[in-house]
Amino acid sequence: MKKFVIICLIILAIICLLVLAHGCASSPRIDDMKTYEESLFTIVEYNENLNFFVVYMNDTKVMYSISVGVYNRGNFTLLVNKDGSPMVYKGQ
Length: 92
Prior knowledge:
92 residues, 1 helix, alpha+beta, 25% helix, 4-stranded antiparallel beta sheet
C-alpha cells in the first residue's frame, strides 16, 4: 500500500511540473497584442510554432523579426533583401 501511495505522489508531482513548465513556456497570443497609431511598430505576422513576430517600424516601414521563444526572447533582427538592403513593408 505504501508503494502505491508513493507512486501516485510521484506521478502527481510530475504532472504538476509538466503543467507549470508548459505555462511558463507559453508565448503571447497575437489577439492579446494591441497596435496603436502612436506605437513604434506594427505587427505583420506572428508564427506561434516558431515563436517569432515580423514587424515594421511605422515611420520607415523597415521590417524586423522579433523572437519570443523561451530561451531567445527579445532577439531583434533586421530583415534584408537579396542585395543586403533593408526589407521595406509594401502592404497597405
